[in-house]
Amino acid sequence: MARHDEPDPATWWERYGHRLHGEPTGSGEGETTVAEHEGREPRAAYPQRQGGEAGAWFTDPSGPPAAERAEPGRRPSGPAHLRAFDPDSLVRARGPVPDRGWRRILHTATLGRIDPGPSAAQLAAQDRLARVRSHLAGTHRVAVTSLKGGVGKTTVTACLGLALAEHRGDRILALDANPDAGTLADRLTGQSDRTVRDLLDDLDAIDSWTAVSRYTSLAGRLQVLASEQDPAAGEAFTRDEYLRADEVLARFFSVMITDSGTGMVHSAMAGTLDVADSLVVVGAPTVDGAGRASKTLDWLVAHGRERLVSDAVVVLVGRAGREIDAPALREHFGGRCRAVVEVPHDPHLATGGRIDPGRLRPATRDAFLELAAAVAEAFPARVGR
Ligand SMILES: Nc1ncnc2c1ncn2[C@@H]1O[C@H](COP(=O)(O)OP(=O)(O)O)[C@@H](O)[C@H]1O
Ligand SMILES: [Mg+2]
C-alpha cells in the first residue's frame, strides 16, 4: 500500500536506511530490512514516489506519520535525532565479506551487489580467532607436559606460542624448563647463548623490559627463553629456581608457556605444576601414546592436581592408524579433560628443524590455532577468578 506522506525513497533510504538496522542497504542474504521487521514486503514501505517533497518528514514540523511515531522500539527519526551527533551512525556497518571460493568471486564480480555471505567455515574460523583473542587479566601460566619424550611436547609448546603471539596483542613467552638441554630455542630461533641459567644468575638486576629481553630471543612476536644447554648443569634447575624465575618473568609477560621436560618428577616440574594455571598434556593417537597421556593424568590426580586435570587440554600428535578407534580415544580424554585437539602429522615439523609457520600445512596450522583457542578460552577475564 502506497503512503503519500513518505519521503522520496531514493533520498531517504540512501541516506538513512542503514540506521534502522545497522546494515548497508545491499541485497545480501540474511539482511533484514525495516519492512521485513515490520512484516511487510521489503521495499514496499518505500514505494515509488507518489507525491510530496523529498525529505518531507524532516522539514514537516508535524514530524513523521502517526503510524511511524507510534511504533515501539523504533529509533526516533525527527529533527531532534538529526541534531544529535552520533559518530557510529555516520559509518555504514558492513557484515563479514566472503573471504574465499565462489562466494568471494561472486561478491567481487558483482561489486558486492550479490553477497552470498560468509561460509560456515569462514564463520568458524572467525569464531576461533575470537577465542584465541580472549581477554586476559594478569598472567596465565600454561604447562606443557607428557610422561614420554619424543611425543611432540617441544613442538606443541613452540607452535602454541607462535599461534598465540601471532594473534594476540600481549606478550607471550615460551620457556624451556627441560633439565636436559632442551630444544625449544633451537626449534624457534636457533639462539640459545643466553639461557634461563643466565637469567637466574642476574635475577636481581632484572627490573625492566629491556633487561629481561636480553635473555630472550624472538620468533615472530613470541619471546623464547632457552634452557641450560649443559645437561650436567641442568639438574641444578630446582623447583625453587623455577619459582624465582617465574616470579620475575610474570611481571613482564601475560602468557607463559613452559615446555616442562620429560617425566613428571624432575625438580623444575614440581615448580611448573605449583604455579601452572592450565595444563596441556601431549600424547599420541596410539595405544601406548594415549596410555601414557592417560597415566600422566592419573599421576596428576594422585598428586592433588584434579583441577588442572579437569581443565586440561589433551593434544594427540600424529595420525591415528586404521586399527585405532579415534572417536573412542577422543571420548576418553574428552570425558576427563576440558578439550582434545588432534594435531596431524606435518612433513615440515617432521624435519625436527627450525619451525617456519608459513611452511606448515593448513590443517596443521588450523589444529594449532584450535589449540590456542582452547587454551585461551580458559583465560580469566578478571584477576582472581
Ligand atoms: N605434528 C608433527 N608432525 C610431524 N612430526 C612431528 C610433529 N610433532 C612433532 N614432530 C617431530 O617429532 C619429534 C619429537 O618432537 P618433540 O617436540 O621434540 O618431542 P618432545 O619434546 O616431546 O621430546 C621431532 O622430530 C618433531 O619434529
Ligand atoms: Mg622436548
From TrEMBL:
It comes from the Bacteria. Residues 142-228 form the CobQ/CobB/MinD/ParA nucleotide binding domain. Gene3D superfamilies: P-loop containing nucleotide triphosphate hydrolases. InterPro entries: CobQ/CobB/MinD/ParA_Nub-bd_dom (IPR002586), P-loop_NTPase (IPR027417), ParA/MinD_ATPase (IPR050625). Residues 34-43 have a biased composition (Basic and acidic residues). Pfam families: CbiA. Residues 1-89 are annotated as: Disordered. Residues 23-33 have a biased composition (Low complexity). This is AAA family ATPase. It comes from Pseudonocardia lutea.
